[in-house]
Amino acid sequence: MAVSERINRHLLGLEGVSADDIEVLLDTAEALTEVSQRDVKKLPTLRGKTVVNLFLENSTRTRTSFEIAAKRLSADAVNISASGSSFSKGETLEDTARNLAAMSPDAIVVRHPYAGAARFLAEVVSCSIVNAGDGAHEHPTQALLDILTIRQHKGRLDGLKVTIVGDLLHSRVARSNLYGLKTMGAQVCLAGPPTLLPAEFEQYGVELHYDLAEAVDGADVIMMLRVQRERQDGNYFPSLDEYARYFCLDEDIVGRAKPDVIILHPGPINRGVEISSTVADGRYSVIMSQVANGVALRMAVLYQLIVPGAEGIRGSTLAATGPATGAAATGVVVADATAAGAAATGAVVADAAAAGDGEKLGAATVAMGGRDGS
Amino acid sequence: MLEVLNAAQMRRALTRIAHEIVERNGGTEGLALIGIRTQGVPLAERIADAIASIEEQRPAVGAMDTTLYRDDGGRLGSAARVEPTEIPFDIEGLTVVLVDDVLYTGRTIRCALDALVDFGRPAAVQLAVLVDRGHRELPIRPDYVGKNVPTSRSQKVQVLLSEVDEVDAVRIEEAGDGGE
Question: Is the pTM of this model over 0.95?
Answer without folding.
Answer: no
